[in-house]
Amino acid sequence: MLPSYQIRLVGFLILVILLGTMIHGFFLYKITARTVEEGFFSAHNRLRSTWEILKPAIIVTNGISFLLISLALLVVTTLSSHRLIGPVVKIAGRLRDLAAGRLDLPPLRLRADDEGQILSEAANQVQETFRQRLQPLAALRDALAAGKEPDLEQVRAVLDQALAGVTLSPPAPGPSPEGSRPPAAGPAASTAPTSASAGKAGGN
Known about the structure:
Keywords: Membrane, Transmembrane, Transmembrane helix
Domain HAMP: 82-135
Distance between the termini: 106 Å
Shape: rod-shaped
Number of domains: 2
Mean pLDDT: 74
GO biological process, one term: signal transduction
Helix content: over 70%
Low-confidence stretches: 185-204
Protein name: HAMP domain-containing protein
Radius of gyration: 40 Å
Organism: Candidatus Ozemobacter sibiricus
Number of helices: 5
Strand content: under 5%
């Protein structure tokens, strides 16, 4: 069974084709009726009989064309969207496995003609990076389970390797540009040297 997004896409495109077929039939009806009317204006009965002959042909032709185009559109849309949606579903499933701790899975591989190769490589890189970081922790856990007491330096080295470059909280905001500027000198600061100079002059 097709996924819901493919069903919506195919339904939308079929609706567009249906509207196009209806518009085509409307204009074909108008053009044919006018042509027949101009050619057989003096023979009303022949005009009626001619249109009665053409009308079933127009309906059948438009119906068959609509069905064939809809079927072709269904096949093409399913195949083309599967190259894009299929890899996205695979990568999403792999990321859920990584979130659950499944680091023992083989690298994700997509088909050569699938889209999303970059995302697949990124998911494999994340898996390999976390596996390399957590392997020493797993070995340390096994050692503790076996009754061995690792020294503090070994534990610290394992933790440093596992948490190297890991950021768990957003960085603190830096000082604003206005706060980093030195305060401007006020009028009192600028007049203080002048007052001191005046005092010295008076003393002299």
